[in-house]
Amino acid sequence: MTPQSLMLNFLGLYVFDRGIAVYSGSVIDVFGRVDVSEEAVRSTLTRMASRGLLTKHRNGRKVYFGLTPRATDVLRDGERRIWQTGAVNRDWDGTWTLVGFSLPEGRRGERHDLRSQLQWAGFGPVQNGLWIAPGARDVTALVEGLAENVTVFTAQHAKPTEAVDLARRAFDTAAIAARYQDFLTKWRVPDSSLPDDLARQLLLHADWLDLVRQDPHLPAELLAGDWPAIEAEQLFQSLATRYVETATPLAAAAIESIEVDAG
Predict the structure, then answer these.
(1) Where is the Transcriptional repressor PaaX-like C-terminal domain (predicted)?
(2) How far apart are the first and last CA of the chain?
(3) Which residues, listed in sequence order, are joined to residue 219 by a DSSP beta bridge?
(4) Number of other residues whose CB lies within 10 A of the CB of residue 263
(5) Burial class of 114 by CB neighbour count within 10 A (0 to 12, 13 to 18, 19+)
(6) Average pLDDT of 240-258?
(7) Are residues 116 and 101 in contact, defined by beta-carbon separation less than 8 angstroms?
(8) Residue 146 pLDDT level (bands cut at 50, 70, 90)
(9) Mean pLDDT calculated for residue range 46-68
(10) 143 within 8 A of 114, measured Cβ to Cβ
(11) For residues 52 and 66, is the Cβ–Cβ distance under 8 A?
(12) What would the mean pLDDT of 60-81 be, rounded to a whole number?
């Protein structure tokens, strides 16, 4: 888990939608609970500020960090993935979004970037130059500047092609299931070596968001009946609810903040 990934989760838990900026020393204190060094925290804050994700606010000799509109959008997307989209797709209408592309060898870098962005957006390669994702997906931003090389459309599969076969061909369902099993193994008995539930809350949310962001959100009817995402999501929600009660007082004592204009 990278310091920036942890930072985004920390900001989502304790800064997002609160109209505050947090003192850097407070962040260092919280991250020390999960063995992230002061140097790494300061470097991450500085890097995120330079990338337009955080704004600096000075109050006396102290430096506070607040969210930019860009960071707010990122955190809102994370909140949506955790609490609204969920880990299991139960609303599939039988359609697929298809993205076909052909980029010459001289544009190898653009081709690599497009593949990476498609994978991040929940697409998988069904064959060379053709990627699919269940449901209707807006890929306008992903293919910007590539209109002449990309074709996007929605469709339904037809015999002899089966939806289950498409899902297995385009997505490594065994690897996805294994990641959920790893989460269950790790969190069925939360790590007692961590100092407190604030540390456990931060790591829990970081682990879960990383997991669901790697998940293409395949329709439930295309997956095994014992698909581990179902149990994993229940476990996450149970622990997250518990930590709201136990970690919030610890955070209130640890985090120093100032009010800032919402941006």
Answers:
(1) 171-249
(2) 28
(3) 89
(4) 12
(5) buried
(6) 97
(7) no
(8) confident
(9) 95
(10) yes
(11) no
(12) 93
- Mean pLDDT calculated for residue range 6-33: 96
| Amino acid (one-letter) located at 177 | A
pLDDT band at 108 (very low <50, low <70, confident <90, very high): confident
Judge contact between 27 and 198, C-beta under 8 A: no
Joined together, the tokens standing for residue 98 give 């298809």
78 vs 101: CA distance, rounded Å: 28
Whats the size of the chain, residue-wise?
A: 263
The Cα 155–Cα 100 span in angstroms is: 13
DSSP 8-state secondary structure symbol assigned to residue 89: B
Split at pLDDT 50, 70, 90, the class of 86 is confident
Q: Which two tokens stand for residue 95?
A: 């359609």
Task: Report pTM.
Answer: 0.87
Q: How far is CA 183 from each of CA 177, 190, 228, rounded to the nearest angstrom? A: 10, 11, 10
Report the C-alpha gap between 119 and 104 in whole angstroms. Answer: 20
Location of structure tokens 């969920």:
86
Tokens of 234: 């229940």
Task: Identify the DSSP state of 127.
Answer: E
Residues 131-170 as b or e (16 or more Cβ within 10 Å = b)? bbbbbebebeebbeeeeebbebeeeeeeeeeebeebbeeb
Q: Which residue shows structure tokens 């879960």?
A: 208
Helix (H, G, I), strand (E, B) or coil at 133: strand
Residue type, 116: S
Looking at residue 263, what is its pLDDT? 52
